[in-house]
Amino acid sequence: MKQFFKNLYIQPKFFWAFFSIVLLFVVSYFVERFYGVSKILFVTLIIFLLVDIILLFRNKTGIQTKRIVPEKLSNGDDNPISITVVNRFQFKTYIKIIDELPIQWQIRDFKIENSLNPSEEKTFNYQVKPTERGEYHFGNVNIFSSSSIGLIARRQQFDENKMVPNYPSFLQLKKYEFIAFTNRLKFFGLKKIRRIGNTLEFEQIKNYVSGDDIRNINWKATAKKNSLMVNQYQDEKSQPVYSIIDKGRVMKMPFNQLSLLDYAINATLVISSIVLRKNDKAGMFTFSRKIENRVVAQQRKSHMNIILETLYNIETDFAESDFSRLYVDIKRSLNQRSLLLLYTNFETLDALHRQLPYLQAIAKTHLLVVIFFENTELKSFTEKKANSTKEIFDKTIAEKFIYEKKLIATELRKHGIQVILTAPDNLTVDTINKYLEIKARGML
């Protein structure tokens, strides 16, 4: 009986009908002929209430449901969730689904309302966008069923408790992997870089096409074939490419609810996969007060799983980053010249000048690419029309900060350091472009 009352929910329709009858009883105190009508309506309401209870509670099965969740979520992406509902009642049923979502999303008003015919099965799909790596705990699925009478609802609670880990964006990984190895690059912002350098390892003789280096024309083969033929050389392979992620306080700033650190983690996952597909060695490590999460650059099938797990387990207190320790560690542990993709952020020239000696020292022995971020919030602010003196002043300050970012990039290039200044949303594309450019130009 206790369970019965726990699962019985009186609907607003009942209260409206009940209070209307009460009001009619009050009126009948002054107009006696309404008294009989009030009693009939009250008895009718009780009968309908009992019929509604019998309809909803005599069938023990009622509604059946199942939530389908991916084995792991992709951070910063829309992840599909589906709830399948089957109606075991013998009448048309109106349902309200309340899913207990993980606390990270702080969604307290989630519900799906619909109707099901007898024995009908429906699947309801929705999407969630996690913005923090870690464990996401889904709770129960609550179904509130009501008949066409609509005076009460029966609650059924289904134990669908499940923990789903939220990994760095593997959906972006699949997307960019496909794009980088097809001829559809330009449609997604990826550039096809003309090759201007090569290694000395000969591969084959092929027909000349527009864009080939004319210095590689094979005149003997051209004379034999009576058409231009060029020598093709193999790309240099097995070069170490390290993604270095700054875990300091400068990477805590959020854009579109995702921190700069998580943007860097997602980009690292994608570029590592492409590096391995290009037959180079992919590695990574992070730094703030000390060097952590090290994965030595290797080239093997299981390496991506190691990188994915390492990226998933990155933790930080966003302390002040120590670039001197980064330099010492690179000098000590990386003996072979490598491509270093350094994800960090500089807001002012003073902040850059404090770290510039260490970056210059690293760039002497390795090909260093410093990747830092545009402040897209400031950029959108400057595009708005100023309507007051204060807004003009604020807009001028914002433009100063944007210009200073460009000065930082210029300063780094002046010291022979490769630079990517990018919006957080374009980080992955711009990083892939830079890697493909370096490979095409034979800079490493």
Structure write-up:
The chain has 12 helices and 21 strands. The chain is of the alpha/beta class. The chain folds into 4 domains: 2-57, no CATH class; 63-167, Sandwich (Immunoglobulin-like); 170-195 and 235-441, von Willebrand factor, type A domain (Rossmann fold), CATH 3.40.50.410; 202-233, no CATH class. 28% of the residues are buried. The model has no long low-confidence stretch (mean pLDDT 87).
Tell me the name of the CATH homologous superfamily of the largest domain. von Willebrand factor, type A domain
CATH A-level architecture of the largest domain: 3-Layer(aba) Sandwich
The gyration radius over C-alpha positions equals 32 Å
Q: Could you name the CATH topology of the largest domain?
A: Rossmann fold
Q: Briefly note the structural class of the backbone.
A: alpha/beta
- Low-pLDDT stretches are none
What's the level 1 CATH class of the largest domain? Alpha Beta
**Roughly what percent helix?**
25-40%
Our estimate of the beta-strand percent is: 25-35%
